[in-house]
Amino acid sequence: MAFESSRPLSGILLAVALCACVQDTRLATRTPGVPPSRYPAQVVMAVPPSTPRPVAAPEALARSINAVARSFDGRVGVAVRSIDKGWTVESNGDVRLPQQSVSKLWVAMTVLDLRDSGRLTLDDPITLTRNDLTLFHQPVASLLKNGEYQTTVGELLRRALTMSDNTCNDRLLRYVGGPSAVRDFIARKGLGNIRFGPGERLLQSATAGLTWRPEYAFGNAFSLARARLPQSARIAAFERYVADPPDGAAPRAIADALARLKKDELLSPNSTAFLISTMESSKTGKQRMRGAVPVGWSFGHKTGTGQDLAGRTAGYNDVGLLMAPDGRAYAIAVMIGDTPRTIPQRQELMQSVVQAVVANQQ
Hints:
The protein is of the alpha+beta class. It has one domain (59-359): DD-peptidase/beta-lactamase superfamily (Beta-lactamase, 3-Layer(aba) Sandwich), CATH 3.40.710.10. The chain has twelve helices and eleven strands. The strands form four sheets. It has a five-stranded antiparallel β-sheet with strand order 2-1-11-10-7. It has a two-stranded antiparallel ribbon with strand order 3-6. Strands 4-5 form a two-stranded antiparallel ribbon. The radius of gyration is 30 Å and the shape is globular. The relative contact order is 0.16. Residues 1-47 have low confidence and may be disordered. Pfam families: Beta-lactamase2 (PF13354).
């Protein structure tokens, strides 16, 4: 009697073929030298890591920052970023305000970025001459003997950051390739809403309504030339600068850049450590944010101060990294773009921001 299957022969052949295909696939995809039995028949899908939920900023801190900024007479921008948690509190954080000497940070970072790539060292020798002198604060000028001073890249960098020496900064700026080199660094690192101006000579001359001349670097020649201008010309130049500063930057962008610096995202760990320790030894702005830093905390910063005209100041700033004893860190930028308030009142505003961060640390 003939065998009668319950399934058609074509179905049996199809099942055999499918089994063979599965076996062939398993053999084809296994690692050479590893037995096939190590590979299960089922397909294992990779599970992407979950995205951490964003941490909310302390509400009390946000209220405090908004209150102190809104009650101040002038254009004010404040940004506080928690480097550990990632939250940001701000008031006018995306408004571009004059940086003034805060922009020395970007020159310093450009120098250290070139150092990281092996294109310069901090021991590179540099000769300062009378032709390098610029405007306003330049204590290095007293060191020129017989019209020269032998120094190094590292010393110029420390003087530019800790003393806010304009001549040291402008000499470093020329050494690294001029404003275009700094702007390239800012763009390559994706620092966002940060401009870099033409250097102290051209920036300060234009703000005053003047065109730079070499003799302005000596004595009080710049002040005399500025005083000879009609008041209307000085006010017009001042207003142009405040309205659209060529060195303008948003407080939030600066705070973000400082946070990335602290996390070694902009420079090598060695250069980052050098820059932050240099900022911590700054001798300027002792009654700005630093005046409210508690004992046991560390603070590295860079100040910036613009020209005065008719009781107004175009740029009065302090930006830096505030570190708690337990290691928590905050990047802070307080920028006053234009204000008639007194210097003690400006300092009080800056100190109140630090006090709010300390009182609401998270």
